[in-house]
Amino acid sequence: QAKNVGGNSFQFFSCDLSKKQQHRLDIENRLRTAVDMGEFQLAFQPLIDLTTTRTVGVEALIRWPQADGSYISPGEFIPIAEETSLIIRIGTWVMKEALKALQRLHLQGFTHLQMAVNLAIGQLWQPGLVQDIVDFLKQLDIPPSALKVELTEGSLMSDVQRMEGIVQEFRRAEIEVAIDDFGTGYSSLARLRSLPITTLKIDRSFLFGTPDNQSAVKMVNTIRQMAESLGIQALAEGIETEEQWRMLQALGCPLGQGFYFAKPMAETALLERLSAEI
Ligand code: C2E
Ligand code: MG
Ligand code: MG
Ligand code: MG
């Protein structure tokens, strides 16, 4: 309570959590039970072959609906889960549900689809992570190459030696590895070259201003070229306009993702979309 105890104004402030801190604590507390209560959902955003505009895969994105019908964004609660190690339980749930959804998609005939799953850095230190995923893939009868794990550039550069080991472990298991939000971190090209990643996701901030702004276009193309020269597939994130798609197609960027093609959607909507593509 806002009471001045014995003239000690420091105590007054330290007892009074700011609105922001209260909100964060509230999220943290509710995150503790959210997996058990079945509160999370997955949305799926199509990954597009920019030449044919066909869906070649989907990215699983976690959703946390609230009682009032609103959603707390993963951009807000994933970092909190990371700080509190709740990320392990949440991340395990995401991987299992995403792979079960992929199995259903494959069983319905969409066997060409890949599933991309985001992994937070806090998940990567789990002993046996790769083996657990491999076992689960086997159990579901899904080829490992149908899974692509997305690691952010920041996490890949945090402990390079260890990350190299983990990426190699995924690749030995034939699981694909994407570097997410590329361009927002500080990776050296030498380090990038030493990682056997399969896809480079160009952060959507690089599409701002394109195609009108020539230097923005050049920047995107430089990243795309670098990926190509390393034998890595480039995927442009955040394509919002037809003009951006046409520009990327002209530059020869193989893959993309964005609201222009499709927003993240529920599995039923995804199935409808996929059926319409046949
Ligand atoms: P991300 O992995 O880079 O995912 C792409 C984000 O960009 C998604 O936001 C997606 O809805 C959004 N997006 C896609 N296309 C467009 C576009 O054309 N325009 C704009 N403005 N946005 C677009 P979302 O779902 O809010 O996720 C935000 C971030 O939260 C993700 O970024 C990822 O870092 C994290 N995240 C989401 N789900 C998970 C998860 O299951 N596990 C982990 N560890 N992180 C997750
Ligand atoms: Mg991602
Ligand atoms: Mg991304
Ligand atoms: Mg992003």
UniProtKB/TrEMBL annotation:
Residues 24-278 form the EAL domain. It comes from the Bacteria. This is Diguanylate cyclase (GGDEF) domain. It comes from Marinobacter subterrani. The chain holds residues 471 to 748 of 748 of the full protein.
